[in-house]
Structure formats: C-alpha cells, structure tokens
Structures
1.
Amino acid sequence: MNNRAGFLEKLESEVENCRRCSLYKTRTNIVFGAGPANAELMIVSEAPGFNEDQKGVPFVGAAGELLNKLLKMTGLKREESYICNILKCRPVTSNLENRPPRSEEIEACTPFLDRQIEIVKPNLIVTLGRYSASYILPKIGYSFRSMAGVHGKTFRGCLLNKAVTVIPTYHPAAALYNPKYKDAIEEDFRVIGRELEKLFNTSRLRCGLSDRLWQVQEKKDMKLPRSIRSRQPIL
Ligand code: SF4
C-alpha cells in the first residue's frame, strides 16, 4: 500500500468513529470518499443522500449516473477521480428526509475534508453545488456570493500549501430536478475537460522530458552516481 492510500485508510477509520456532530446518531454508514489516493482531479460535493448512506459510497443513484456521464465528456472515468463530500454523514430532517448541511455540521466535519485534500494533493478540484464552492473558494482567496457568479469559471490559488485550480459547477441533482441547469452544467464540464487536458499534457511533457534526459545521460557515461543510474525520477 502506498503512503497516501495508507493515510486515507487511517483517516477513514477515524471518521467511522466520529461523533463530532449529531449526524452520527442517524447514519447507516459514513460516506468517506472513493477513488485513487493520487488522483489529479478531486470532486467535492455536499453530503450523502439516502442511497449513499445505505451503501457507504458517494454518488450512487440517478445523480451518480449523471456525474459518470458528465465525467465521460471530460475523457475521464469516474474511477480516475477522487470523489468526496463536505459532510461524511447524511443530514436528515426529523422525518428522516434529506436536508442541506447546517453550518455547525460543516464546521465539525470539514477538517476531515482538509486532510483528504492534503493527502490526495489534487491539481484540480471541482466543487459541486453551493456548499462546497462556498467552503473551498474562500480558502484560496476568492469570495463566494452565488453559484451563478462562479460556475464554470477557473480559479487558481494555493490551498493547504499547494497550488491548485478550482472550478465550481452545479450539483448534478440540480440538473435532474430543473432542466435549465442541464446546459450550464454540461458547458462547465467542457471547461473542466479542457483544464484536465492541459494538466495531462503538462504531465506528459514532464515525463517526455524526463525520458529524453535519461536517454542523454545514459549515453553519456556510466560515471553517474549509483542513485542516478538507478533511474530515479528526476523531475
Ligand atoms: S458529519 Fe462529519 S462531523 Fe458529523 S458525525 Fe459525521 S463524520 Fe463526524
């Protein structure tokens, strides 16, 4: 197990025992997050709903299917991104219906999200809906007033000591309930696709450079130190 996966596993065990807010009383499962521990793209949404709480997995059901389709438009499979939420337990009304997160729950739970970001170190964060946009954007120095003002825009900044790009968009559930959001969310995912293309081209370029440098080094001589001859990454 690599270090990042190990750190995520430890953090998940901590969340499983969490009682920092009252949502632990009504949860069936925590929904910690899913995806590769070294993903380039992290998707941060709001909170688990009924299906997620039952299965312990983010984005199952109709909104999950729509998210998968939107991700496909970017050329990325769902399994290639790390998906998580602001809250790890489902917020419910007294009738056990879904409800939006409360500020005290966000305050209690987001230290876990911060640690996920620190471990995964994504280059691109896509926020889904107003709760995640209004949490992440101020952390990189931008104010949040409304989804209409920020969706589909590219924000660059430093988050937890790492350069990061943030693109907010609407929650896929909004597009399911109100078709007026469908075009906007699809257009936003086109922007996300172009940003990912830039990211992957940059990393391909870095790998290509690395390979070319190694070919030159290897031809030059064998006087290089042993640590370098062993083809350690040099970039
Ligand atoms: S929502 Fe977060 S803070 Fe509240 S009990 Fe669940 S894991 Fe803990």
Note: Residues 3-210 form a domain with the Uracil-DNA Glycosylase, subunit E fold (CATH 3.40.470.10).
2.
Amino acid sequence: MKNRFGDRFRAALFGGLLLGGAGLSFAATTAIPALPPRSTPPTTPAPQPPATLPELPPLSPPPAPLPELSPTTPATPARPSSPAPTTPNRVTPPGLPRPTDPLYSRQRNLQSIGMEGAWAQLPVTLSPVTVAVLDTGFIASPELVGRVINGYDFVSDAARAGDGNGRDADAAGVGALAYHAEVVGNIISAAHDGRGMAGIAPRVRVVQIRVAGTDGLIDPQDLADSLRWAAGMTVAGVPTNPNPARILNLSLYADFIPLTRCDTRVQAAVDAATARGALVIAGAANDGKDASGYSPAGCRNVLTVTSVSEAGVRPSYANWGRAVTLAAPGGEVGRGVVVSSLSGPGGVREPNGTSFAAPHAAGVAALLLSVRPKLSPSQLRSLLTRTATPFPSGRCDPDPARTCGAGTLNADAAIKAALASPLGK
Ligand SMILES: [Ca+2]
Ligand SMILES: [Ca+2]
C-alpha cells in the first residue's frame, strides 16, 4: 500500500464513510489543506478479510412477483435481467399515478422536487434508458428486479477488494459499505410496486459498477477506467460493456491530499464519456468546503450536486461553490433520505449526505432521456439548471461565497420544459 501522499487517493463514499452532519468541524486554514475532516483514513488501511455481505433477509413482505406498474399496462413478459430492451416501455396515460409504496409518504425528498407532477406528465411511450452507478457494487435489490445489472468489478487491488481477486466480472458489493450502491440505485429507480419505496425513474435500468474497495479507497486509474467502461468505451483487459449508460452517477469522491484540482486521469475519462453522449453526475462531497478541489466534483463536464434541505437551505456538511451545478435533497442529521435497503433495519435506511442528492439528479436526467432520448449531456444540463427552483431569498446559505448552483432540482418543471420542446426527440 502506498502512503497516502502517493499515487493512491482516498475515496470517500458520501454517507457511507461520511454520513453528512456529524462532526462538522472544519480543518484550520493552512497552506496545505489539512486532512479533510471526517475522512481521516488509517495510514495503512487494514484490508478487511473477505466477508460475506451483511445482507439480511428483508423483514418486510417476501419477494413476490412484481406487479406491472398499472393493471392496464399491456401484459408484457417480465423483462429479462440483462439484455437491453428493444421495445419502448409502455406507461398508461396520463402518466405514472401516485405511488402506493408504503414508504412513499415518508419520501418528502421526492415530493419536494415535484416528482408527482413529473410522473403525471409522462407520455404513453418511454424510451429505454440505462444509468450506471459507479460505487460499491451490485446488490440484488428487490426494488430493481429485472432492471439491475451486475456490471464489472474495477477494484484492481485484490488486498482491498475483499473478494479474493482484482478486477473481475462479478461486481457484487462486499463488506459493510456495500449498501451504499444499493440505496443510490434505489433512489434512482426503485419500482412503484406497492412495496418498500418509490424511485424517481422506476422503469430505467441500473448497471452497478464496483469501483470502491471494502476500505472506501478508490484507485484513480480504476475510477478512470470504470468511467470509460460505463459509457461503452474500450478498456484494456476488460470485455466491452454490453449495457452502456447515458447517465453516470458518482456518489463518491477521490479524496486528494491536498485537495486542489481534478485529477487529470479522471478529467480525461469524464471528457471522453461526455463526448460519447453520457452525462456524468457527481456528489459535491460532505466536508462543508469548496467543492472545486475534489474529483470528480471539481472536474469539467461534471454535473455536480450538493445537498439542500426541503426548504432550500444548505446543511453544514454539504460542499459548495462554483463547481456546484445544482442542489437536491440529501437529508439532514436526524432527517435522512428514506430508502429501501436489504440490510437496513426493517428493510429501511435513512442516510444523509451528498451521495443521496446526486442520484436525484441522475433519476430526473434519466426521465428526461426517456421522453427525449437524443438530448446531449449539455442539453440535459441546461434543462436541469434552467428549471431549478430558486433558493429562498436567492441563496442556499447566508454566506454569499457558499453557493449551491442554479437552484434546487425541479423534476416537474424539467419534464414540462423537455416536453414543450422538440429538442432531443
Ligand atoms: Ca474482484
Ligand atoms: Ca417499491
């Protein structure tokens, strides 16, 4: 293991290692940034032994066949788990009804970004959309049955991978943080099936790509390679991704010491994915600092999302500044984002952090592509920013330097604007 000033940098999974809120002391101002608060890694992180996933059987109702979204939906056979859908998804007009999932009444985050208005506008025919989640890897979430794909394990260091090898075709999550990717995927796409929670874009497919080791470290080359692979590009030694994604969610950051710039390898991969037509969405990180020094939050061509409360106020954990594109609900201490999770108590977790803000934007971007499949990354960015809800009195924080981008994500207005234009049709 290289020391932490070396080539390898530490990745912090927002809300995984860095659940927002607790311990909000900031590093003293020094010429060289002090170790980021709340992310101090052990000098030699002890690789965890291969461990079985801490999954517990769901305590709530046992898995049952997923009902169709609507009783009047044409009786199409259940979608297979991996092949790309070749026919458009059907949604019964006038759009998706209000979810009946039992957790929905607690999903204030979805209500606050206008999801009901957005769902109600969805047309009969939706184009298939694939979202990649680069994170802790694959968990067979009951919320994503038939729509979650075990992508690829990009963790090259076998000592940190916890699965006994380096890169391999099994992206299964390992260790205590494995739930992180599960809840991110569920926010994006949990089924509206009368069980658990409701997701933002309940028909899209999610490719789970493993890039974080059991210790939360991410090798920069692993991150760069997984970005390229997620978007469908060639990576040496890795089979081509049969499910390339148009939306890439990165609820993590590479924790540089010092945190001064975007890593050049990560930037090159982001640029290549963007040129390929994929929108890269990242969380801003949870250090209560300027996001511009973080990778990928501070990289060009990244749609960087920070957290706000439902009232549009920045929680103290949430990073800020010019690198932030917009804000979305990320939960607060004692008032987290309610999500289904196989390993959570009673099948539920309530985490907070920018990890959980980013997938709100990813889910809405996926919905936009489902109605306007040819929208480019820059057109998606424009739609999301110009329709965002302004912050109360124009700012998310009393300190004018601590900005949160264009406003709070507004799914209702974004879908309305997309449908009002032929752009991307
Ligand atoms: Ca492996
Ligand atoms: Ca559900």
Note: The first strand starts at residue 9 and ends at 13.
